[in-house]
């Protein structure tokens, strides 16, 4: 027993966070899910947590052998020492062959005898935690649905006065058409469902839902999780409003006076800035300029790289005078390479929370949103999840930079995810032609934090770094996607080295 009064920890920190303290002690719970969803692993975590607290624990297995359970435990680096195991083979030996001579149906004798043996073991061991795995075997033994439900009810009544917390496991293989047993749900104090989803491409996604939990407030909805060596790693659903921290909404400088001037001093703490434009326009480079300036001030920053290799990005930034290696060595900058095919939205949000809450990251850059979208190709509520993540970062006073590539290079361009209304500031980069050369134009479309410059300036990125030119007054058509410069060539910038 630990945590809040009358609570029993589940052995899984993520699940305890969802339950806001753990399971209510001395109750009967249902853990359901299809085969391979992680039920046995979570059940073992529950028992091993009890063993670590000096509590006697019992695993009643009607589906797996004791050897198989030890194999599951070994795959996670666990030992089942301290966990008493009762398996169906033990019941077969104890009942003996004479059970076939009963005037009752064989199945009726088997079920009744097995339940009696289980009760005898419980009376002998006096466990504080029990896992009963699984109900599908009880259905097979009972054959009759009414008798099966009576036996489940009898088990609940048997355990009720014994000061024991019970988890019964159901793999749903005996349910008609995969439908949940509403009667079984009503008998249990709480119901936890594990799901395994197979996507069209990439790793299988797993998620957990607490369907009901009497008497306590819990975090509803689906929560992503993965099975790793060491058990289930559950990522509670992010709720931004629960993470507000007081902070000063000061301007965040980029180190480029012209760029800061365009944004009225720079984006504020606790806001998100969207950098959008075609491929090769310089979105990531401007983002790196902000990150480099923050690191130079001694702030911790984090970059999540979905698209570009970290080595390529570092080499490119170094060529433009932004040497990030020193800040990485000093621990001020962390760059994480994210594989979109292998990570779920919940796991990614957990990565972000760890950086913000544990390492104190003050600036987060996501490069790019296309990669973030690829991480959840079959998610139905992408905009809501993105909004919640950005709201969380805003609540914590983090400056967020979002790189948003647009499809196409010139002409009318579009984006795969429209989050411009979510962002607090939007920087637009476009290509334009002047003097037989392709150049770049930078403009600020909006800035909720305060006033911003409405002029269009030339953007230049070369070995001299990022440079912002004077406002281009003789410039038209920027919002059509094909900006045209019709003035003299005087205000345009020249190279300081090789172009980039």
From TrEMBL:
Organism superkingdom: Bacteria
EC number(s) per entry: 2.7.11.1
Alphabetical keyword list: Hydrolase, Kinase, Phosphoprotein, Repeat, Transferase
Entry keyword Transferase: yes
KaiC domain span: 6-248, 250-482
Gene3D superfamilies in UniProt: P-loop containing nucleotide triphosphate hydrolases
GO molecular function, one term: ATP binding
SMART domains: AAA
Coiled coil: none
CDD domains: KaiC-like_N
Enzyme class, spelled out: transferase
Protein name: non-specific serine/threonine protein kinase
């Amino acid at each position: 027993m630990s945590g809040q009064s009358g609570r029993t920890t589940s052995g899984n920190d993520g699940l305890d966070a969802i339950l806001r303290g753990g399971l209510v002690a001395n109750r009967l719970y249902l853990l359901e899910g299809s085969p391979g969803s992680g039920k046995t692993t979570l059940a073992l975590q529950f028992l091993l947590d009890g063993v670590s607290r000096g509590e006697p624990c019992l695993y009643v297995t009607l589906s797996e052998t004791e050897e198989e359970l030890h194999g599951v435990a070994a795959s996670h680096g666990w030992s089942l020492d301290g966990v008493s195991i009762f398996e169906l083979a033990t019941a077969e030996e104890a009942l003996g062959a004479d059970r076939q001579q009963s005037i009752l149906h064989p199945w009726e004798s088997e079920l009744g005898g097995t339940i009696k043996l289980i009760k005898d073991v419980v009376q002998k061991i006096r466990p504080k935690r029990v896992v009963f795995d699984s109900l599908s075997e009880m259905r097979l033994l009972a054959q009759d649905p009414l008798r099966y439900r009576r036996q489940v009810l009898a088990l609940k009544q048997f355990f009720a006065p014994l000061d024991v917390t019970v988890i019964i496991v159901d793999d749903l293989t005996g349910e008609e058409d995969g439908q949940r047993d509403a009667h079984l749900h009503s008998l249990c104090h709480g119901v936890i469902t594990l799901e395994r989803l197979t996507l069209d491409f990439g790793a299988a996604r797993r998620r957990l839902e607490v369907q009901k939990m009497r008497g306590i407030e819990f975090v509803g909805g689906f929560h992503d999780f993965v099975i790793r060596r060491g058990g289930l790693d559950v990522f509670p659903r992010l709720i931004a409003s629960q993470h507000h921290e007081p902070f000063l909404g000061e301007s965040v400088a980029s180190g480029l006076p012209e760029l800061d001037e365009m944004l009225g001093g720079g984006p504020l703490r606790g806001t998100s800035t969207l950098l959008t434009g075609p491929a090769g326009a310089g979105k990531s480079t401007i983002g790196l300029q902000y990150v480099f300036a923050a690191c130079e001030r001694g702030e911790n920053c984090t970059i999540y790289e979905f698209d570009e290799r970290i080595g390529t990005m570092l080499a490119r930034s170094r060529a433009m005078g932004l040497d990030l290696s020193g800040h990485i060595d000093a621990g001020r900058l962390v760059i994480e390479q994210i594989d979109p095919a292998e990570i779920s939205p919940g796991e990614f949000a957990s990565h972000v929370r760890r950086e913000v809450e544990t390492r104190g990251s003050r600036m987060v850059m996501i490069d790019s949103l296309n990669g973030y979208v690829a991480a959840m190709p079959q998610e139905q509520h992408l905009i809501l999840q993105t909004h919640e993540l950005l709201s969380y970062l805003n609540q914590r006073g983090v400056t967020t930079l979002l790189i948003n590539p647009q499809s196409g290079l010139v002409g009318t361009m579009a984006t795969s995810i429209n989050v411009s209304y979510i962002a607090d500031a939007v920087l637009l980069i476009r290509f334009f032609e002047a003097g037989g050369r392709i150049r770049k134009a930078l403009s600020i479309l909006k800035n909720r934090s305060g006033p911003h410059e409405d002029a269009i300036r030339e953007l230049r990125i070369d070995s001299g770094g990022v440079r912002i030119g004077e406002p281009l007054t003789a410039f038209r058509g920027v919002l059509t996607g094909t900006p045209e410069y019709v003035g003299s060539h005087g205000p345009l910038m020249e190279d300081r080295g090789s172009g980039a």
